[in-house]
Each structure stands twice: as C-alpha cells, then as structure tokens.
C-alpha cells in the first residue's frame, strides 16, 4: 500500500488556528505563524505549493517585545522623493495600529516569492479578543502555533 497522500482535497484542506498574542514575544510568535501559513507543519509540505492554513491572531495590542525595542526599533520606508526616508518608532505604530507590527514581522519571515501575498491574506489579526471567525477555529495554541 502506498504511503503517498497525493493531491487530494483532504490533504490540502485549510485548518483555522487561533493564536493569543497576549504577553507573547513578537519574534517567536511570528516564526510559528509563518511556519503555519507556509504549511511546513503538514507532511505534504512542498515549497512550491500553497498548502498552509489560516491563522487568527487575537489581542495584538498586548504583544510583548524584549529589551528596548519598544523605544529603539524603527520601521523605515521611503516615499520615493529625495530625502523621503521615513522612520517611525515601534511605540508610535503600536498606538496607531498594533496589527501592523505583527503583520510586518510575519511578512518578513515568509519567503520573498509570489506565494507571499496569498499566504499573508490567510493571516487575520485583531486588536482585542473579539473576532468573527470563532466558528471556524479548529486548533487553539496557547504556547504557539507550532508545537514540535
């Protein structure tokens, strides 16, 4: 009997994972989320196939960072005009939109290829504990999205 799962709908079914970001370290949480979005936790993982799952992150405003990152970490972007380098500290971004910090951390940990945007579309981030995907959640991770 063959051990090959093949390209069945059941093998590629997308599962919904819930991650509570409350007092979780940003970087360690983001690596686990990126692994789940890529599908590396599945036995059918293929780098060229998009077989990852959905991830719902709640309590984004209560994420923790180590050291002095809260004041010293800068997010940079360029407007395209001469002298248009903009630097925004992490504390100001967390005041405006805490989901952007998690979004940028996870996006930076995904491979830089054409599957990055479809994978990021399966990441749903909410500032508080309320979210509209409560009926879809199958797996809840208190320690992190990837348990090895």
From TrEMBL:
<keyword id="KW-0687">Ribonucleoprotein</keyword>
<comment type="similarity">
    <text>Belongs to the universal ribosomal protein uL13 family.</text>
</comment>
<dbReference type="GO" id="GO:0003735">
    <property type="term" value="F:structural constituent of ribosome"/>
</dbReference>
<dbReference type="GO" id="GO:0006412">
    <property type="term" value="P:translation"/>
</dbReference>
<dbReference type="Pfam" id="PF00572">
    <property type="entry name" value="Ribosomal_L13"/>
</dbReference>
<dbReference type="InterPro" id="IPR036899">
    <property type="entry name" value="Ribosomal_uL13_sf"/>
</dbReference>
<keyword id="KW-0689">Ribosomal protein</keyword>
<dbReference type="InterPro" id="IPR005822">
    <property type="entry name" value="Ribosomal_uL13"/>
</dbReference>
<dbReference type="InterPro" id="IPR005823">
    <property type="entry name" value="Ribosomal_uL13_bac-type"/>
</dbReference>
<dbReference type="GO" id="GO:0005762">
    <property type="term" value="C:mitochondrial large ribosomal subunit"/>
</dbReference>
<dbReference type="InterPro" id="IPR023563">
    <property type="entry name" value="Ribosomal_uL13_CS"/>
</dbReference>
<dbReference type="GO" id="GO:0017148">
    <property type="term" value="P:negative regulation of translation"/>
</dbReference>
<protein>
    <recommendedName>
        <fullName>50S ribosomal protein L13</fullName>
    </recommendedName>
</protein>
<dbReference type="GO" id="GO:0003729">
    <property type="term" value="F:mRNA binding"/>
</dbReference>
